[in-house]
Amino acid sequence: MTRAITNLGVDGGRLWADIMALANITDPAAPFTRRSFSRLFADGRDWLTKRFHEAELETRIDAAGNLIGRIEGSDPRAGSIIVGSHTDTVPSGGRFDGIAGVAAGLEIVRVLRERKIALRHALEIVDFLAEEPSEFGLSCIGSRGMSGRLTAAQLQFSKPDGEKLSEALARVGGEPARLAEAKRSDIRAGFELHIEQGTVLETGAIDIGVVTAIVGITRIEVVFEGKAGHAGATPMHRRHDALVAAARLVDRVRILAEESAAQGRGYFVATTGVIEARPNASNIIPGSARLIIDARSESREALVEFRERLDRESLVLARAASVERPRFETLSDTLPSACDESLRQLLKTAANGLGLSFVDIASGAGHDTAFLSHIAPAAMVFIPCKDGASHCPEEWCEPKEVAAGTAVILEAVLEFDRGET
Ligand code: GLV
Ligand code: MN
Ligand code: MN
């Protein structure tokens, strides 16, 4: 485990209490669940808004639905520093993914207030809207908006009950008609603390991961249409079973991903995380099937090639199962993004100064920082998490680990504020 660390300059107990309080705003039947756009998500944001007010932050929701708490800087021309992450969760997720990064920002503000430190830059704590893939099939909605990458077509995505993303965005306080105003040009540095969601730090007993790059993520929706029919009375040779094509595609996704990973172009993974059959009854041949495939890589070329192969092969599978493939749609397609080298250096210097060990590490998970990095220098700190478990209730890290990551960002913010002119 990591070393006993004391005197980090942040209040680890207060930080931990915030994380637990927010985590406990959950669906009791499926801890820890606080899906974006849900009632519980709104409850979590109400809780956070109160904490922002207590910390005397000027609080607002921007046009892209991000909840932002701000302290003005002493130099109005200096621009802003952002610290943030997200408070939404996956279904039955964990207590730390996202939450820890928002709580870290809040703790940094409290420490600055207590030490009566006024920064030259404005400091903003951001709860980015819907970092996890929402019911609209889209992730990182708030950070896409803040970086000018939330498209008009994406605002038309709808969730199963028919609500459009534009409507849901307005429901949580965003302004889809003024989305352009959410795009920022004043951010000079962005920092995000996150659990590693892997085992590199835990295995190596290393305190801090300084992220090098975040994978690109391509999400593709595929729909097969066949013909529903009686499961007992339809002979095998007369079937148009959409789920048969879908099942074969799940297998191809895995094989194509394994082949890509073996090609030596860096990290590559792909997952079929959604499969829906209709009408989904035991005695009816599935008339339609919908899949969502999530592919990630450090290599843009590898992702493009995967998508092309999947396009070709899904058509072949449709033909073989005597069904149609009416939809092959790229829902989202983010570029692999590198973290800013000078901010990474500041984080390393901060870790060093605090007596913390650190290592360079790539992120296989997506993060809001990937979008932020299109409009500003941005960097991430990873902290260890137990057994690499994440997106599950077992997700865990120790109080001193979150405190250590927060202290590193605090020191980096202070140094950046001192240094940048
Ligand atoms: C976000 O957690 C993602 O990597 O999907
Ligand atoms: Mn996540
Ligand atoms: Mn996350």
What can be said about this structure in brief?
By secondary structure, the protein is of the alpha/beta class.
Task: Explain what the structure shows.
- With 421 residues, this protein is α/β, with parallel strands linked by helices.
- The chain folds into two domains: 2-215 and 336-419, Zn peptidases (Aminopeptidase); 217-333, Alpha-Beta Plaits.
- Helix content is 35%, strand content 23%.
- The protein is built from twelve helices and 15 strands.
- The protein has helices at residues 12-23, 39-54, 99-114, 141-146, 152-155, 165-171, 200-204, 242-261, 300-320, 341-353, 368-372, 399-419; strands at 58-61, 67-71, 80-85, 122-127, 187-195, 208-214, 216-225, 229-230, 268-278, 284-285, 288-297, 324-333, 337-338, 358-363, 378-383.
- The strands form three sheets. Strands 1, 2, 3, 4, 5, 6, 13, 14 and 15 form a nine-stranded mixed sheet that branches. Strands 9-11-7-12 form a four-stranded antiparallel sheet, with helices on one face. The chain has a two-stranded antiparallel ribbon with strand order 8-10.
- β1 (58-61) and β2 form a beta hairpin.
- The chain is elongated and about 80 Å long.
- Bound molecules: glyoxylic acid and manganese (II) ion (2 copies).
- One manganese (II) ion (MN) is lined by residues 90, 97, 132, 391.
Q: What is the topological layout?
A:
Layout lengths: L11 H12 L15 H16 L3 E4 L5 E5 L8 E6 L13 H16 L7 E6 L13 H6 L5 H4 L9 H7 L15 E9 L4 H5 L3 E7 L1 E10 L3 E2 L11 H20 L6 E11 L5 E2 L2 E10 L2 H21 L3 E10 L3 E2 L2 H13 L4 E6 L4 H5 L5 E6 L15 H21 L2
Parallel strand pairs: 3-4, 3-5, 5-15, 6-14
Antiparallel strand pairs: 1-2, 2-4, 6-13, 6-15, 7-11, 7-12, 8-10, 9-11
Helix pairs in contact: 1-3, 1-12, 3-12, 8-9, 10-12
The chain binds glyoxylic acid (GLV) and manganese (II) ion (2 copies).
One manganese (II) ion binds next to loops.
